[in-house]
Design a protein that fits this description.
Radius of gyration: 35 Å
Largest sheet: 5 strands, antiparallel
CATH superfamily of one domain: RRM (RNA recognition motif) domain
Strand content: 25-35%
Oligomer: single chain
Strand order of the largest sheet: 2-3-1-5-4
CATH class of one domain: Alpha Beta
CATH topology of one domain: Alpha-Beta Plaits
Shape: elongated
Structural class: alpha+beta
Helix content: 25-40%
Distance between the termini: 99 Å
Length: 260
C-alpha cells in the first residue's frame, strides 16, 4: 500500500502495482473451449474452477495450467479460456478433464472458433455455393463453410458458415435484438441457427406459419356420447309419459315407458 501514498511514485508505477495480481499481458492468446454444457448450466464458475485446479486432472492439463487464463462460464456452451502457448494449444485439444465427477473434452483449437458463425439447414434445392453467394451479395462474405457435423469422413449436408469478425452479420439482423432465423435463397427457405443462443428463441417464420396452419386445420373433438352409467338417466329425461286407465273407477296412473 505504501506505493499509493508515496508522492514520488508515478501513476504508471501505481497502475502496475494495482494490476500485479493479474496474469502478465502477452501478445499471443488462443481462445479455447471446454465443451460442458450441462456443467456450465448447473454449477457456478467458482465450482468449475475448483475442479479444473484439482490434482486429479491429467498431467497434460496440470502442466498447461500456468499458460491458461481468462476462464469464463458460457451459458449453454461450456467453459471458455485462452492459452498463451501455441504448442500447448495442440496438446490440449481433445484432452478429457473431469468436472464434478464427469469427463468433458477440450475442443481442438481452430482459428475460426472465436468468429461469429451460423448453422444453415439447406433446403433440398440449395447448395453451399448458393449460401456463399447470398451472404457475399448482402455484404457479409464468409471466410469458411464446412459441414456442421463430421465424424470419420461422414459429413452432414447442413453447413456452418463462419464470418470475418465476432459481430453478428448485419444481414442477419432486423434490429439490435431482432435476429433473422431464415433466409430465402432462389425462392427456397433455409433455416438459420445462430451462435448466440438467445437469438434462437425466435421461431423461424416458415415454421411458425406451418404450426399455425396445422392448428387451424385440426378438427374439433366430437362430443362424447353418454356413458353407460348416464344413459338410463338420459333416457329417463327424454321418456314420454304414458297414460293408462284400469277401469272407469280407477285413478289415472301416469308412468314412463323406459327401455334400458
Amino acid at each position: 500500500m505504501a506505493v499509493f501514498h508515496d508522492e514520488e511514485v508515478s501513476s504508471v508505477d501505481q497502475r502496475f502495482a494495482a494490476m500485479k495480481g493479474l496474469p502478465t499481458p502477452v501478445q499471443d492468446e488462443y481462445p479455447m473451449l471446454i465443451s460442458c454444457k450441462s456443467a456450465a448450466a448447473t454449477f457456478p464458475l467458482q465450482i468449475l474452477l475448483d475442479c479444473l485446479a484439482a490434482g486429479y486432472q491429467p498431467n497434460a492439463w496440470i502442466d498447461a495450467k500456468p499458460h491458461c487464463r481468462n476462464f469464463k462460464r458460457i451459458k449453454n456452451v461450456g467453459i471458455g479460456f485462452t492459452c498463451t502457448d501455441r504448442d500447448l494449444v495442440s496438446k490440449l485439444g481433445g484432452l478429457a478433464v473431469k468436472i464434478c465427477g464427469r469427463s468433458f473434452t477440450v475442443k481442438k483449437y481452430s482459428e475460426y472458433n472465436h468468429l461469429y458463425w451460423v448453422d444453415v439447414l439447406l433446403s433440398d434445392d440449395t447448395t453451399p455455393s448458393d449460401i456463399w453467394e447470398y451472404f457475399t451479395l448482402h455484404g457479409d462474405q464468409p471466410v469458411l463453410l464446412q459441414s456442421s457435423f463430421s465424424k470419420n469422413a461422414i459429413h452432414s449436408r447442413h453447413i456452418t458458415v463462419y464470418f470475418s469478425s465476432q459481430r453478428v452479420p448485419a444481414c442477419l439482423l432486423l434490429g439490435p435484438d431482432d435476429p433473422i432465423r431464415e433466409i430465402t435463397v432462389h425462392n427456397h427457405v433455409c433455416i438459420v441457427t445462430h451462435k448466440l443462443s438467445k437469438f434462437n428463441r425466435v421461431t423461424p417464420t416458415s415454421l411458425l406459419k406451418r404450426t399455425q396452419r396445422a392448428a387451424s386445420t385440426t378438427p374439433a373433438p366430437a362430443s362424447s356420447p353418454d356413458s353407460p352409467i348416464d344413459a338410463p338417466r338420459s333416457r329417463l329425461r327424454n321418456a314420454q309419459p304414458l297414460i293408462t286407465r284400469c277401469s272407469p273407477h280407477c285413478r289415472v296412473v301416469q308412468r314412463s315407458r323406459i327401455r334400458i
